Amino acid sequence: MTDARTEAMIDSLLARMTLEEKVGQIIQADIASITPEDLARYPIGSILAGGNSSPDGNERAPLQDWVALSRAFRAAAAARPGAAVPLMFGIDAVHGHNNIVGATLFPHNIGLGAARDPDLIRRIGEATAQEVAASGADWTFGPTLAVPRNDRWGRTYEGYSEHPEVGAAYAGPMTLGLQGELLEGRPLASDRIAGSAKHFVADGGTQDGVDQGDAVISEADLIAIHAQGYVPAIDEGVLTVMASFSSWNGEKITGNHALLTDVLKGRMGFNGFVVGDWNAHGQVDGCNNESCPQAINAGLDMFMAPDSWRGLYVNTLAQARSGEIPTARLDDAVRRILRVKAKLGVFGNDRDRSIEGRTDVLGSPAHRALAREAVRKSLVLLKNDGVLPIRAGARVLVAGTAADSIGQASGGWTVTWQGADTTNADFPGGTSIWAGLKEAVTEAGGVAELNADGEFSQKPDVAVVVFGETPYAEFQGDIETLDFLPEEPLALLRRLKAAGIPTVSVFLSGRPLWVNPEINASDAFVAAWLPGAEGAGVADVLVAHPAAQTSYDFTGKLSFSWPRSSDQDVLNVGDANYDPQFAYGYGLSYAHPEVVPALSEAGAASVSKSNLDRYFRDGRVQSPWSLILRDEGGDSRVGQRLAAASPRANVSVSAADGAAQESAMALNFTGEAEAVIFGPAVDLSRQRNGDMVLTAAVRLDAPASGPIELGFGKDRINIQPLLQDAKVGEWRTIRVRLACFDATAIGVAAVETPFVLASKVGLRLSLADIGLAPHDTAAACPAN
């Protein structure tokens, strides 16, 4: 990456840069919190578009709007006086350029790991780079080289495998695909972008799979398991590395000098720059989001400060002036950033942007064909009692609510951060699994019928049931059990089996889950992971087509061990007492069939499938509950994505940052309305008799001007006294004993609404962590 001419240019530029300009280079701001006009005052060096950030807040913005946004920021940076160092624009292209409607969506990494095909990975990197460059961005936060060791982690699907060999085999090809080969004195090609190996290091090794948690592991395991993918990425010239949110043995990686400076930049020879994750510096001991010299001094080169960048700039500038951040350390960080920018070619007219704005690149036929190939290669056949491949001329029933949902097949990081509340209209040019099956079955001379509930008028020869996890992303995707909890798919499979219909299950998931009952109720079971928007790739392998020149067999092999029970902790190949249901590397094919005996169903989750005590956590309403916004116009049911309003818009909800990114909901009342947690009628007599406490974290986002009613069941009490001394912007936890609510009014034996927040006047507040907790002395009844 380095060469004498570039280093001489950097020397000259550093000599001309002011301290303000240097500090600006080490700060990155999100497009939702910065405008091009801000660059006239703040010499910020980089922008990003986070998972829910988009031009003018329009998550369905077309390519032209993304290009216009990028050009506006570049023009504003170029107009700055002084050194006027150009910007870098980073984005999370997690499985293709997933931020833009119409882009090619590839299978998530967990599926690509099952393909065991490094050349495929290189080609996917090339296609992704082209589509990102076409949108005006020049940097993606990938490849993800995490080695997930606990499938309860909500980011499991972002890892290629539980075994470091797969990530190590893929890291180099993906880096080459994204960036191309680095040539001395020459910038990246117009259709290449900078990569970022992440998240350094051991983000997949945290205790209990807790996102942003602590990896309590030995140095030997840190090296042998979690660091292996970074070596080939660095060898192939990856331009940036992202430090992990997580900790290693109690110390946050973002503030760990030994790992970032001594190991990564020293022993491993990395000479690009290290960027932080979303406000991760604020979690370092002694830091907050707006002040963290510890991270820079530890070896971080660029803060990712999406919404905290203003205060962080002011404080970091003061720390650089005082010497708390040494000049040598600041200059080294800026040098590394300038080195990468030089390789990108953003100085002067070195960057060839001829691909920018080309709509023919986004979702091109060649890229979609590549994604379809990736889907075929990612599928893993766990069971087949002879029902597959589906014979030519068959009558096929396609069932399951996921069959015609491209969004569910694509998972998180799809159009929005969590991937929720998309419709097939968000995937122009994409194909659902149903659409792919219909085309393949029809071409083979058969008949295909879609009925999500599995109903039929004429008995089919075979049924294909598509089901699985609904979309989620980091933090909000953490789970407590590997048991696949929804009961409807199993009931459907058993009903079809009872009717004598051979059944194929296509299981969508971001991790292996305990599905022994579902496998037993199926004649064939396919782990399809999160295949993306090319559902025809599934049909390519499932349906026999005698007229086709090419027939496809299953080639995918498990890159994650499949659990024998829902609470199995020893589930990684090489562990002592390793005993999975299906081992790492397992995968059947038509050429090599195998009889799978009935599996034990004694392994169901020890947690209750009826969640009585937890209603809202980690930014998600917890199943089986849902959120309703109610006013005089009626009810509006809110989906997983917190962006909705009541029928007359008297109350609206949006995602908000709490203890973590988007872990809270923000409510804006403009008139009389209610926000209601609603679900099946449950008997909470035990909870009330046990003197449990209704608890929630609350933050006033504006002064409260009237009563704030808290409801449990059918009773309401005014909780404004609990918040009368609360400062705007300050989180506090309210605890109200269930005994405070009138037992008769509650209807405690059949509670459908365990939490209601109501106001008759304007009110702005945010909520997090809503649920029931044991009684403690801090709980009381508000004085009304």
Beta-strand share of residues: 15-25%
Share of residues in helices: 25-40%
Name the shape in a single word.
globular
- The number of helices is 21
Question: What structural class is derived from the secondary structure elements?
Answer: alpha/beta
The total beta strand count reads 31
For the termini, the CA-CA separation is 68 Å
Mean pLDDT: 93
Tell me the major beta sheet: 8 strands, antiparallel
Segments where pLDDT lies below 50 for 5+ residues?
A: none
What is the radius of gyration? 27 Å
Brief digest:
This protein is of the alpha/beta class.
Structural key phrases:
single chain, about 775 residues, alpha/beta, eight-stranded antiparallel beta sheet, six-stranded mixed beta sheet, 21 helices, about 25% helix, about 20% strand, globular
Provide an overview of this structure.
The chain is of the alpha/beta class and 784 residues long. The chain is 26% helix and 18% strand. The chain has 21 helices and 31 strands. Helix 17 links the parallel strand 16 and strand 17 (524-529). It starts with a helix and ends in an 11-residue tail after the last strand.
List the helices and strands and how they pair.
Elements: H1 4-16, H2 19-25, E1 27-30, E2 46-49, H3 63-78, E3 88-91, H4 109-115, H5 118-134, E4 139-140, H6 164-179, E5 196-200, E6 214-215, H7 219-226, H8 230-235, E7 240-243, E8 247-248, E9 251-252, H9 257-267, E10 273-275, H10 293-298, E11 303-304, H11 309-322, H12 327-344, H13 365-378, E12 380-384, E13 395-399, H14 406-410, H15 433-443, E14 447-450, E15 462-468, H16 488-498, E16 503-508, H17 516-520, E17 524-529, H18 536-542, E18 614-617, E19 620-621, E20 626-631, E21 634-638, E22 643-645, E23 651-656, E24 664-669, E25 673-678, H19 685-689, E26 693-700, E27 709-712, E28 715-718, H20 720-723, E29 731-737, H21 743-746, E30 755-759, E31 763-773
Helix pairs in contact: 1-12, 2-11, 4-13, 5-6, 5-13, 13-18, 15-18
